[in-house]
Amino acid sequence: MSVKDLNHTLGTAIGELSDVSTMGGLFHEHRDGAPLPSGRALEEIVDLCRAILFPGFYGNSNLNSKTLEYHVGVNVERLCQLLSEQILAGLCFVQGKDEPVCPTERAQQLAVEFIAKLPGLRCILAMDVEAAYNGDPAAMSRAEIISCYPVIKAVSNYRIAHELYLQGVPLIPRIITEMAHSETGIDIHPEAQIGHHFTIDHGTGVVIGATCIIGNHVKLYQGVTLGAKSFPLDEKGNPIKGIPRHPILEDNVIVYSNATILGRITIGQGTVIGGNLWVTESTKPGEHLVQAKKRKEYDLRPEDWGGL
Question: How confident is the model at residue 101, as a pLDDT?
Fold first, then answer.
């Protein structure tokens, strides 16, 4: 192919790739003066939140009781600045072309209101740490839980994102939970409602849908899915959004590994769901669901084991 033909082919491809009419929502047109959300800034925001919520475990490790207030103050000041900018970017991102200038003062107010909720977030995260420690005999200390266990990283991101979601901040909460998803393999939607003393053992592959409601003292194991069974469709055949479609888990529920719970059903208080089960119906409080055992003729009895 000649150089002329190569240039023509490239020019054609560029023209097709630049045709806005073919993009179907895949193009975000930037407005002058409107910031865009930054993944790098949001990573720093999460790091700052973790350093504030768990001082000495994240961020600067050379802390003591005399320097703590100074370091927390520095982190909060930086967090307020970054979070204001990113909330503003989220607000601008969802605004239409004809809407007024992005609300800078509103973004600053939301950032300050979020920071005011951090003491309460620390209290509930302390309960989550306690649940993880008490629920795992392999854990030697709460410090080990905070430093090493993926559940604390994932749940911290979730609780940060959930507060921002409740404030009406667009886009940013979902980015923050997806950051934890990438880091830990735990996928929690920021809209989900989760009570205190919540823990996930091991964690990899857990999915918690947007309209899930989870009570207090609930424990999940790896591979658990709390999902939707089906999606009601509108007159155009598209899924209807915003309706409750995920499970409700009442207090003191335990769900073992690779169990799948689907639909708007209620798992009653104190229910235990065994591993690898598929659950699509509500349970009564205190039920224990396990796989049916089917004995085969060639199964060995304990007395057959001999000296093996």
Answer: 65
